[in-house]
Amino acid sequence: MTTVERMVYQARTVSSSSSSPRAAHKASTSHRAPKRGQNAPKGPKKRTNRKKGLWWKILLGVLGGLLAIGIGLFTYLYVTTDIPQPEKVAIAEKTTVYYNDGTTEIGSFSEQNREIIDCSVLPDYVGNAIVASEDRSFYRNGGIDIMGMARALYNNLTTGSRQGGSTITQQYAERYYLGDTTSYSGKIREAILAMKIANSQDKQQVLCNYMNTIYLGRGAYGLQAAAKAYFGKEAKDLTVDEAAMIAGIIPAPSMWDPAVNPEQAKSRFTRVIGIMREDGYITGQQASEAKFPETKPVSVSNDLAGPNGYLLTTVENELVASKAFTKDELETGGYKIVSTLDPNMQKIMQTVGDDRPEGMPESIQVGGIALDQKTGSVKAIYGGSDYLKHQLNNATQANFQPGSTMKPFGLLGAAMDDVNFNTMFNGNSPERFETTPGTWAEVPNALNMSWGTINLKQATANSVNTVFMNVNQHLTPKKFAQIAHDAGITGDIQEDTLYNILGINSLTVWDLAQGHSTIANDGTKNTLHIVDRVLKGDKEMYKPNLGTKQVFDANDCMLVQNAMLGTTQYGTAAGTAATLGRQVAGKSGTANDETAASFVGYTPSLMNVWAIWNPGENGESQIVPEFAGYGVSSTGYPSHLFTEFMAQALAGQPAETFATPVDNGKIGGPNGDWGLGGQRYVPSTNNGTQQRQQNEQQQDSQNKQESNDSNTSNESSNNGDAKQNEQQQTTPENTKSPEQSQPENGNTNGDSGGGTGGNNGSNNGSNNNGSNSGDSGNSGNQNGNGGGNSGGQNNTGNGEQSQR
């Protein structure tokens, strides 16, 4: 007979007894005349006794009726109450993000810190400790404890307090199905639901769900999270003492936390151990040997603190953007997300980015990314030092002007148009171009340096602006923009100005890396991604769609890679390849007015991109000042970051070499109208490094002579000349000459200067009178961390800003 059936039977018995013949007989005999010899009562008293008997009948009838109604109502509610779906918050489980090894945790997303576990792995004493603390009759009761409820009701009515008399099943019903209930009607529904649960669910199932649901303090929901919060271990590894401590503080976990109220926690611990011994869950010896366990210090942690916040939000944003998950699902679904991030590379990336040299202004922002261009897997990002202090991710969200790092897309366009990279161009400075329809402007090279006759490979290595403006004249700005977009760049690129090849439009580090990764992967585009897979238990729930597509000819892209090798050998980042002891394709870039600088570089299997910029308080662009010997030149600090990262990330790995492409293009292009037409390339022993050194020596000598003249003369004109000559001096620290600062209707772009140091095999040559330059030449030695760059404002009237 069930609990409800017993209660219905008792109610019917009480009701029927109040109207039975026997009861009626007793009622009638109570008013008979007294026996002989007894004093007969007087009239009025006889009437009073009759009234009393009548009232008792009425009272019993009313009580019986009410009880019958109550039982009937209870029966109706029991029959019509269904066990609902669990409350969403009760089964909400945190999602954990891991590095690509699948075991090293980065952090988690959660509404509540809960990890749902299979209770079959728990020792029996864990559940028994909970039972001893909360509901000794759990294994015997039908879901409710009548005496406990009555006691709680009495105390609530007499004291006005809210004392609980709930069983484990009732608490489970409240937390798992109903949410918080404090009203009497809510408690009645809770009791009914508990009875139904007791009759339909196994006791072990109820206890397990309860242990996975209940709040246990320190932000931990469920036993697994609590075991980690208090003891730094999993629930399956808890000892008897540890289980008893956690069980003891269930009624008020925050107030009875040993770190808050150790005496109360110990008192509750002793109580639980005693009940466990009395009820046979542990032996007397175990009870006597029980010792209050030591807990971990309370830690207020935030998974988003420090650099991890950038990693976690990038993972979350990628999954939400895929439409495979909502933000809410990620915070409550209990998924295991395995990222593409490499723990060692991420550590190196963070260390390199955080290691700011002395004198580097705090306002300067740094962003970086490392990836495998063959798969599009992001291996590391540098979004900043602390997400809680700066929530704009410098790798994925912040914008900067990339400058000349956009030139390789124009070079690819030349290869696509069947232009041989030995085609000669006029590399002198400045040169006049129709930058927009009807608008002409003089465009100088960096340092206003004239390179004479120079081929495309040399122009790429030395970032010669005038050559690439000429290239864009043939391509058209619209086609250049299309090539960049086809490579994967999603940012806006102007289609109405030749300057777009000089990187005047703002991009993110991620966007720039996406575009270059396609060239580095021989023309096959893979969508950059930071999530490798998402699991729920052992089931794979998500795998990214890489959108793999061959968008460019492989040989064309290899030609671009080959040209970019010159940048790190003898060009604007000379010495980088020698320092790393391996082939490195690279391209530097500097924004107009020295407000940003960047460097893109890669080996055949690893790409690394860095950028720095200097936003003002309101986000406006500011000049990046010199610091620690670094100028803003992209051959300075960004290439330093690149070299530092790659040296550590590739340590111990064999050097790889790039494939050798075949240049089947035509000198001067298919129609002979590119560059200087059919003029053939003739190697020269004079090279670009020598040209830079010669220019610097000549300027230095001239400055010294004019400075001496100034010292021997007090004429103001001479003083003015000396001041101007100081401005014209070219140094690795990137000072500007007057010609570069204010070219007439001009736009100064380009990169020049020293690389990261070391011996530089130089194979570029040119001279100012237009002599041919070649790929073979004398080796040069140029040391230093920075090179001189300079830029003038674009005065064409259309507001465009030039880049280097």
UniProtKB/TrEMBL annotation:
GO-annotated biological processes: cell wall organization; peptidoglycan biosynthetic process; proteolysis; regulation of cell shape
Biased composition range(s): Gly residues: 666-678, 751-760
Region (Disordered): 1-49, 661-804
Superkingdom of source: Bacteria
Residue ranges, compositional bias (Low complexity): 684-735, 761-782, 792-804
Any one GO CC term of the record: outer membrane-bounded periplasmic space
Pfam entry (one): Transgly
Swiss-Prot/TrEMBL keywords: Carboxypeptidase, Cell shape, Cell wall biogenesis/degradation, Glycosyltransferase, Hydrolase, Membrane, Multifunctional enzyme, Peptidoglycan synthesis, Protease, Transferase, Transmembrane, Transmembrane helix
SUPFAM superfamilies to which the protein is assigned, alphabetical: beta-lactamase/transpeptidase-like (SSF56601), Lysozyme-like (SSF53955)
Cross-referenced Gene3D superfamilies: Biosynthetic peptidoglycan transglycosylase-like, DD-peptidase/beta-lactamase superfamily
UniProt domain Glycosyl transferase family: residue ranges: 105-276
Record keyword Transmembrane present: yes
Official protein name in the record: Penicillin-binding protein
Species this protein is from: Bifidobacterium animalis subsp. animalis MCC 0483
